[in-house]
Amino acid sequence: MPSTLSTPIKPASGILSWIQDAWASVSSLGVGADDTSYFSRKVVLTNQVAVIIFIVGLIQTGGFLAIGSPQATINWFLLLLVVVWSVPFLNFLENRVASRYVLSLALPLFSVIFVGHIRALHPESVHDASFYVPRYFQIALSFIPVILFGFEEKKHLFISFTLNVLVLLFYNEIMGLMGAGLGVAEPMIKDPFFVSVSSVFGLAVVSTGYFFLNKMNSEYEVQIEGLLEKTEQQNRSMQDAINYAKNIQQVVLPKDNVLAKLEDRLFVMYKPLHTVSGDFYMVEESNDHIVFAVIDCTGHGVPGAFMSILASSALQRSIDLVGFDRPEVILNNANRLFHEDLSRSGNPEIQDGMDMVLCSFDKNKNVLHAAGANLMIHVVDGGSIAEYRTDKGGISIGKPERTFKPLSIPLNSGAQVYISSDGYYDQFGGERNKRIGRARYRQLLEETAKLPVKEQHEKLVAFFDDWKGDQFQIDDVCVIGFRC
Questions:
Q1: Are 412 and 463 within one domain?
Q2: Which of 76-90, 171-185, 199-213 has the highest average model confidence (pLDDT)?
Q3: By mean pLDDT, which of 28-32, 56-60, 131-135, 152-156 is the weakest?
């Protein structure tokens, strides 16, 4: 029984999907890539109304065939179907003005054909109201050109609206030409043409009010479009400025030749959250030491980038003072200098700073000297992973004369060292939309350490991207891997 109930659902769903795809495809015929959204809506509306009239006309034609209507009636409806179907075809050929002319006339003519032939087929049901009601309906249809053309295309609007008014004015004559007959109610009306003229007058009164309101609406739309264009220009200017700021921030990052020289021993995974980043890294080499660091400044984006420039300046000045071999002394001086830089603002509420870890590898002794604030060091040596925590509290937070605890880690040849900001393991994603987490991050590093350095980089990037999936990246990401 379950299979019997579930079997028809799939075809129905498939047919519905096909209908939706076909509707979307026909609706978008003639929409250009450079069209404004306002004009695109007109083209889409033209196609959709044409399809709806075609379907209704097809049903009506089938109905007239079923009741044995005269061939003249059938021919008029077939002609209407061909004319209406030409609308999306004209749009496809980019004759988008012609298509709207055709549609603006097809609607009132469809009304005339339908009403006239119904009255001719069933004269016994005609009464006084049947003379007036179609004209009121025709008045409503006369507003179609305003929708299809709008006040931006005044010439086409005037011509199309005039044609619709003429259809209303010579309503009875058009029905007579179509062989639809005037019905038995018309002889009861002394002056049918006067009624038509009165209908046009009523249309003029209503349309004047409508045109006035629509003109006001068009003016508001122009103002809104102007504001949107101004906003887009401002956004482009801001983005250009941010892109230029990115070039400036590149100055604080290591030069490509330094990284290329160490590519067999060291990799950097660097994924800013925005164009510019609050994370940055440092890699330098001397005769006796290889120095590398990850710095995570307060914030990300533009504020973080400003902080990173201040942090880089303080760090570089400290290195110039004390050299590479004692990371804890470098941080002591950087903390003081960074604190002084922020104090110049005179704003006691600024509590910004940076988390970081700085490593200096002694090439001669195979010893890793390190110091840091809030970030960790992971070492995979002999197949197992060890985690080394640095001091609590970021740089610039607390006393300017603060001292940092030194770390000395003896390493075997081939041991792997990893340092990173918290952006990697704080990322949300996976099947349950959870963080990567420190435990999973440690396990990943332990599995990755045995690979060549380049493949380690590729694996960490692939895992991060797969885990994140369609989720937003929540923070800047910076990871450095180093092989002894």
A1: yes
A2: 76-90
A3: 131-135
For 182, the domain range is 14-231
For residue 191, pLDDT beyond 60: no
How confident is the model over 434-469, as pLDDT tens digits? 999 999 999 999 999 999 999 999 999 999 999 999
Out of 231, 266, 293, a domain closes at 231
**Do residue 199 and residue 264 come from a single domain?**
no
Assess whether 266 and 215 both reside in one domain.
no
Residue where a domain terminates, one of 231, 248, 277: 231
Q: Are 297 and 311 in contact (CB under 8 A)?
A: yes
Q: Could you tell me if 225 and 263 lie in one domain?
A: no
Tell me whether residue 76 is in a domain: yes
Type of residue numbered 415? A
CATH number at residue 456: 3.60.40.10
For the entire predicted model, the pTM comes to 0.58
CA distances from 52 to 80, 104, 197, 205 (A): 13, 14, 31, 30
> Distance between CA atoms of 287 and 361, rounded to whole angstroms?
11
Q: Which residues pair with 297 in a beta bridge?
A: 354
Q: Residue count of the chain, please give it.
A: 484
**How many domains, the chain?**
2
Q: Are residues 200 and 309 in the same domain?
A: no
Q: In which band, very low, low, confident or very high, does the pLDDT at 144 lie, cut at 50, 70 and 90?
A: confident
Same domain flag for 276 and 192: no
Residues 200 and 108 in one domain: yes
Residue 311 has phi, psi (to 5 degrees) of: -65, -40
Angstrom distance (rounded) from CA 80 to CA 59 = 12
Question: Which residues make Cβ contacts (< 8 Å) with residue 336, sequence separation at least 6?
Answer: 400, 401
- 265 with 208, same domain? no
Question: How far apart are alpha carbons 400 and 189 in whole angstroms?
Answer: 101
Residue 2 lies in a domain: no
The overall average pLDDT reported for the chain is 80
**Alpha carbon separation from 482 to 261, 295, 375, 438 (Å, rounded):** 13, 16, 16, 19
